[in-house]
User: What shape does this take?
Amino acid sequence: MDFAANLTLSALGQQILVGLSRTTILFIVASGLSLVLGVLRIPNLAHGSLYMIGAFVTYSVAMALGGGAFGFWLALIVAPVLVAAVSFAVERGIFRHLYDREHLMLLLFTFSLTLVFNDMVKLIWGADYRSLSPPEVLKGFVTIFGLPFPRYNLFLLMLGPVVALGLWWLTNRTKIGKIARAAAVDREMVGAVGINVSRVFSSVFVIGCFLAGLGGALVAPTQNITQGMDHAIIIETFLIIIVGGLGNIWGALLGALIFGLTDSVGILICPQFAIVFPYAAVVTVLLVRPKGLLKSTW
Amino acid sequence: MLKVEGIHVYYGLSHILFEVSLEVHPGEVVCLLGRNGAGKSTTMRGIMGLNPPRQGKVLFEDQDLSGKKPFEIARLGLGYVPDDRRVFADLTVAENLDIVEGVSKRKPQWTRDRLFEFFPPLAPIAHRKAGLLSGGEQQMLTIARALMTNPKLLLLDEPTEGLAPLVVKTLEEQISSLKEAGLTVLLAEQNQKMALRLSDRAYVIDNGSIRYHGTIQELRENDEVRRKYLLV
Amino acid sequence: MKKVVLIAGMLALICSSAWAKAIKVGIVDCYSGPASTYTNDVRDGFKLYVDQVNGAGGVLGTPIEFTTRDSKFKVDLGLREAKELIMREGVDILMGTINSALALALADLSAKEKIPFFSTFSKSAKITGEKGNRYVFGMNENTTMAGKAAAVGLAQKPYVKYWIAGDDYEYGHAIAEGVWDNLKKLKPEVELLGQSWWKVGEPDFTPYITAMLAAKPDAVIIATGGRDCVPFLKAAQATGFNQKVPFFMHTATELSTLMPLGQEAPENVIGTSNYFFYYPETAENKSFVESFQSAYGRPPKVGAMYGYVTAKFIVEGYKKAGKVDTEKLIDALEDMTVDSPVGPLTMRGGDHQVMFPMFMGITQKVPEYDFLKASDIVTIPGDQVMPSMDEIKAARGQ
Assistant: This one.
């Protein structure tokens, strides 16, 4: 193993910041899945597909408007909303009738959705990968700790706490958030006090899927928009929420932090085997706390 | 107000209730007495639509509740207070009440403030997480939460279970006040004495069937029934 | 009446036998997915020359026909198609493929069936190296050649401290080794500070880029395969990597890599490439570019050159052999030289590898195109990039 001779404090600081910027996207996607899993008890494998669709739609919208800044910002709103609309249709049409089914059935059903979505994407956008550039204001880099740090990652870094705050406000300060938290633990009783649980589920599902689409939209300028995106993210996302505690949004944040930071710091410390680090971290956590770090709603 | 007509309720393949019928008239407190496992809770759940009867009918204010979801039944005016309390543990006392606000379209009789007046111990702990409350506090909260829906009829399932005698006494007073406030109550209880004091009429259930029905006076005088179905 | 029938019959016989005497080439390649941009070029370049030859009466009076089969990047499917082409279609020559694993399988098949196989685009050095045989011909550069050429070019630059990063699979490591081993031989004072390897199809290079920069190398060798070249260059541009440290990537100066990026491609990237449509400005190259452009409506990229050169070798080979005979073709091809858009090309007899010159250049924006061009082009002659015959013999266990 080749340990880097460049392990200076500034390099470490830089990598931590890069890791945190990746955490933002991981957290957004994982929190969406956590909501759906915690409240509706649906292990939605198609969550990754919605993320991928979010990225492709962002590309198309941005390109349709000339590929400039305006197009990108508009796409950032349009893509998650579109994904939310698609998920609403799927929920009303299909999921709604499956809430009382066994988890295995739901899992298999969402798996079939991933196949459908994957083919749909291939049909609409073709098999080639797409490439999107960030808007001018977020291109290039700034110098942090004497090293170049991409502007777009700085944007993601700052966005992270905003999203976390927003989610906290949603779950703790809004009525729908509180009902969702109650329904996560006792959906029967929520119905018995006169609340239409089905409608609550629908809203939570749409919000969760919106987050998946938002994650995809935000990641679009940083990487290739390809067919394999759904598989890659869904594995990472499930690992994150398992590590954090199923159904716990703050667990998702913790898991995303662990994943993002071990990945980027690992790349600095041991770049030949960097791929292994986040998974090694997950395994370690689960050995010590098999139920996840924070309280799960399951 | 409430007419249960010959309902059969199953848990999966297990046949639990056999031809259970009872009636509750407006303004009454009717108690459903029986030993542990006699079928009291199942009857309550059957009425509330949580375990819908496979046969028979439940009529509330002449409306057939067959096929209705629990939330619809709650909105029609039935308030459910389960025997295991089931407060929303992660929410505070105040939040437990707030999320139910606005559920019923009826004129709000019960507001949060009025409930805090009615159940004074809840007021100082309004911002405590419901999961951290004592048994008695949780019981008050569950009743208060059901009242937030402005029910016409309250289904109280074994409210005194597991509570200290002093708390039970307070509860009895509170239920009595509710009756005076005009609420109709169906009370399932193992604790005979309290039930008999509060109620107008009684049904006795054993092994899933109604074995006896009569006024409180009649039941008090019927040693045989009490010995056969109610003594532990 | 009888005379008419007789003449008609004889004409039919002559025509059918003439048709039966066409030289058949079977191309097995991946025509689905992103690889198709490259493989379409190879086919079109091949077709361009074949059409010219057929228009002038064919080779030794016989036309050349070719058919393509899609391997969909699957080795078993490609192998099946190739076998079918040999058994049922009776092809004289097999050609293909961008997939190195399939190319190696076809190399084995060609030896068994004694059908010449012209390997186009796959860059594994094993094709004419350890897995090479009498029936296999390498019609493009391989990782050893690219590595050696890059080393020659980099040795002339002032960089001493290097970092190596790339795709963690066979091709990535092969290219990196090829460059580094040869660079060390030519310039012993070079130092390897460290290496990073990411998975093929890595979506986010940012943490790797920041980590590399932290090591403060003089230059970086990026060993990415076809899939990741464009995404890495994009990330380099977005993060300003190319402005902070010079880096080398094989094929970074190729049109196939630079065209998709347009004006977003990073400048000052050192790249090696086998072909540019704008260099060298020889008559042969110009006419090739013109015919290709007018036939297909796009400028030729390196794949087109491979296809064109393959066709030329086959045609000249048969001409020299004097008849449509496999063994005579192979003998004729050994050490044969043909003219090409990149100058005279020789097919080395010992290993059947065409000795392509390599062009090393730096990406630059130019006003006349909306993609970047290679500038400051240095030509490394074909014979300087080839592995020695001793090395080949050793690899083949001879």
Summary: The domain at 144-277+357-385 of chain C is CATH 3.40.50.2300 (Rossmann fold).
